[in-house]
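Researcher: Structure for this, please.
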Amino acid sequence: MKQKSKRVRREIRTAWVFLLPSFTGIFVFVLLPFLDAVRRSFFEAMGGRFVGFQNYRTVLENDAFLLAVRNTGRFILVCIPLLLLLSLLFSLMMQHKGDFFKVSFLIPMAIPVASVALLWKIFFHNQGILNHLLIKLGRQPTDWMNTDYAFLVLVLSYLWKNIGYDCVLWLSGLSSIPGSIYEAAAIDGAGEFKKFIYITLPGLLPTLFVAAVMSLVNSFKVFREAYLVAGAYPQNSIYMLQHLLNNWFISLDIQKMCAAAVMLAAVFVLFILLLHGLNRNEVEE
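Model: Predicted structure, token format:
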């Protein structure tokens, strides 16, 4: 018994030795900068004078911030449900397909962001491929990136880039559901629809939590494509929070940037906790 206890303690110490570099990196490069941002959000950037919640009030009254929040919220509400639904549909179709077909969905993730931005420019530029096709069909060309169509272009870019990643998550969840459950349901006379409703969907609830969180994280990365295609001040419909924070950083509005970042982090954490709570309740039921 003592030998087993010593072995367990030794394994725990070994695990901590391997985890220590990662924890150190997180503490130095994530936690400390975030705590510094929280501190700066309560002070003036130049004079260092404590101003309390004044920076937060200034940010909440800023028209550009309100526009960015609306656009970011609309983008998330449109893209994440659409991505989860489409990726689940493709995963069900790919479940029994070959590996090449599955890997092909991951190709967009392997393409560098700069190449993706160039691809969208080629397609959606005023003199691009899409307008050239419209002219050939006798239609009027459209200024895709300087009208409300820019939002649809950004949604398309996000879905194309991330659908493969979510497909991998769904396929992993599907493979974890025992086949014996489906066989027993088939013996009892259950059809494909009932199998999906009563077996597949409940079995995918843990995967739904992971896929939703990762889709949310990846939705904030779409700024790279938007910035490379449309610049720092794009059409209003795709002016996101990342544009705003980037512009505040360039203009050295550190106090406003830190206040906005803290509020964004708080909303992000609350959203994840909400998803976690819903997932836990569903699993317990």
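Researcher: Any notable elements?
Model: The longest helix spans residues 2-40. The chain has one domain: 64-284.
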